[in-house]
Amino acid sequence: MAAPKHLVSWLCRRFCKLDFTSFLWILFVVSLVSVIVMYFRVMENPWLSDKEHFIVHEDIREGEFIDDEGEGLNLMVNYLADTSRIGVDGWWMPHVRWMQDIDCDIGNFGVCREVLSISCKPDSVRAIYQYVPFKSGIPMEKLLFSAKSSATDMKIFEGMDRDATYSAFALVKYDNGQQQTLRLDFPGGSHPYVEAEYELKIPKGRQICSVVVMLGCYGYYGSVKFLAVTIRPVPPTGKWKSSELVRSNFVEQCPSPSPRIESRTVMPFVTELIYDLPETQVENDVTLVTQVSMDRIDMLEKSIEFWDGPMSIVLYVPTKSETVDTDHDWKRYYITKKLKNPKFKSQAVVRAVYANTVGDEYPINYLRNLAIKQSQTKYMLLLDADFIPSPQFRENFLKEMSNGIGMNNDGYMAFVVPAFEFREGLEESPDIPETKEQLRDQIFGFSAKILPFRFVDSPEAHRATDYNRWYTAMEPYMVTTYQDKFEPYVVLQKTPRMPLYDERFTGYGMNKVTHIMELIAAKYEIYVLPNVWAIHIPHRSTSYTMQFLQDPLKRLENRATRFDFVVDIMNKYKVGPCQPGR
User: Fold this and answer.
1) Cα gap 153→223, rounded to integer Å
2) 186 or 51: which leads in pLDDT
3) What residue ranges define each of the domains in the chain, with the CATH number in brackets?
4) pLDDT tens string 250-301
5) Which class for 311: exposed (0-12), middle (13-18), buried (19 or more C-beta within 10 A)?
6) Is-contact 172 181, C-beta < 8 A?
7) Which of 266, 353, 272 is nearest to 317 (CA)?
8) What 3-state DSSP class applies to 174?
9) Confidence (pTM)
């Protein structure tokens, strides 16, 4: 026992003689070594490696995909989607941005994981999505869906106990067009990572076409983190060798289109021509093409006031009937009364579309396409009815066209109309600017009243318009940076090849941005016009909008349709992973 005592005494004499500066240096060196050790441990972690996009351990043979806990095959990937191109791989987020963080507080000392985190708000769904397309003909008995999540100060907003959601969802689509939603719920409050899992037994004779995973929260204040999100197929016993359990054997790089699931809207609709005010047509003209529901028909007055050219309008007439409604006489009377003295300054076509039942979703893209088809001029301004076109829009637009822009491109051009809105609190009696100079004054002046449309809540929707350039632009300029949330209002040339809106999208969400995406896929050149614009007319949110903002399952179905649409145009135009040779 003497040796240890002498050692302790020696160490005591040495360290007791150290001054405070030397002690700090020793502490610094120890801390630096700890950081270096932690760094190498993190770099060896499969979730954090830049060498592989997928979750792969270094000591596993190449191609064997396992989850971040090393427990088996996982079809999920851990990187964010590249929103500058058309594709379906990776975690895709809408306008509310999720963060990819490194979390070392997961219950194992010295072990870190990459996690997805978000601050929850009670008034809207905060969600992120991933699409997993399955190869056809793959035999599977089960599908395992699991995730881990931690929470900090997650509190349900008052009055939202029944609707509040803090969950992970998986929407499973089968080859017969049917679908099934799996749900993993997590507790509120503050807690470390907890795991939830769901084992799905696949119906006999059915094959999975795709799975859309959604992580999200609604009705809560607080913040959450997710990790180890797993989709694991379980093949029949003895059908696969362990070396064959690789992601590439299950996931299609260029997915085949999924079987279409009909919306709740019953087709076809009964339509009726209400007004057809003929005038001598000028072929090289531009028509304002729009659609509107009867409860917003008053907004048409502003558009009519500021537009001096042809108009193509489709009115949607809802019903409260739970069975198919065929009584349209009183609706026809109501429409003609509301439009008793329309002040159309030129040719106009107004058509009514009667809803079948109260359960019909607002068929926004069906209405848009109908308005496009009844337009008779070379150019069309595709604008929603809650926007006012700038004064002299028609004159200024046709002047740009007469200067020769786009004459040799066979109609493959889209002309962006910069969109604006009034600041909150200034919507009651808006002062509509009549010139671009007046518009700039109301944006940058002492008492600024106007800002770019959706600048606060959805900046990516119009960022590529490049407003800073537009304020001083004298000539049209090309949009050179694409972002998959870009959804400007545009003028298009009506040609047989022009893509129409996808009528799978009803109600709110993805109905316009997907049209712009298809224009990009079809190799349209996008130009911003310097001397025209449109301003949003403030109004109360519709029931369709509120349902979309507050219903997680409705949001999930809409995003799943969005992924199906992207797959369709990837195949149609041979873009992204479907390019020849890839």
Assistant:
1) 7
2) 186
3) 23-261+551-582 (2.60.120.260), 270-550 (3.90.550.10)
4) 999 999 887 765 544 445 889 999 888 776 566 789 999 999 988 888 778 7
5) buried
6) yes
7) 353
8) strand
9) 0.84
